[in-house]
Write a structure and sequence with these properties.
mainly alpha, two-stranded antiparallel ribbon, 2 strands
């Protein structure tokens, strides 16, 4: 409970929710895979998405093709390389769902991170609102004449803004200044 004593008396404010700093433990636990499937999916995606995998696979394919084209005694996969195509198809059939699992896990981590960041932003907003309330109370209670001047100038600015039409509204309609002058009954100036 926060108490502010003024010349007029005592004002008491109570907090409905205790504000506290968010914990950083969730950030550490966010990147730890929960089970074997998640660990496997992350490992496969990490391995297949690397230059090492591309280079090793390219070397294996080059050796496969060379041995089958130049092989003098035994060709286990002749020219259209049907067995090699089958191996690529099998690899793609298993790699795609595993990589999708890893991407889904990353999306879940992103959602959790977004939720925690939203909670932090809400907390900061609440803290800023309470600080603004405290500063307003202090300003009105310590310097009431300054607060009245500030309120008067703010209301004058608000009135001035309410009377003045925004420039963006006239430009958004596509009307040219000369066309709007004709509509108002004024004649445009001619050049001499």
């Amino acid at each position: 409970m926060a108490t502010i004593t003024t010349q007029n008396g005592t004002r008491t404010r109570t907090a409905t929710k205790q504000l506290s700093a968010p914990s950083t433990d969730w950030r550490r636990s966010l990147h730890i895979p929960q089970n074997f499937g998640q660990q496997l999916a992350d490992g496969v995606a990490k391995g297949m998405g690397s230059w090492t995998f591309i280079i090793v696979q390219s070397a294996i394919v080059a050796i496969w093709i060379t041995l089958n084209l130049v092989g003098f005694f035994y060709h286990w996969d002749i020219y259209p390389f049907i067995l090699l195509n089958l191996l690529f198809s099998t690899q793609a059939a298993y790699a795609a769902p595993i990589i999708m699992m890893s991407q889904n896990r990353q999306a879940q981590k992103d959602h959790i991170r977004d939720d925690h960041e939203a909670e932090e932003v809400d907390l900061l907003y609440q803290i800023n609102q309470r600080q603004l309330e405290i500063l307003t109370l202090l300003r009105t209670n310590l310097c009431p004449e300054d607060a009245e001047k500030m309120a008067a100038s703010l209301s004058a600015m608000g009135d001035a803004l309410a009377q003045k039409p925004p420039k963006a509204a006239t430009m958004a309609t596509g009307a040219q200044p000369a066309a709007s002058a004709k509509a108002a009954g004024a004649t445009p100036r001619r050049r001499r």
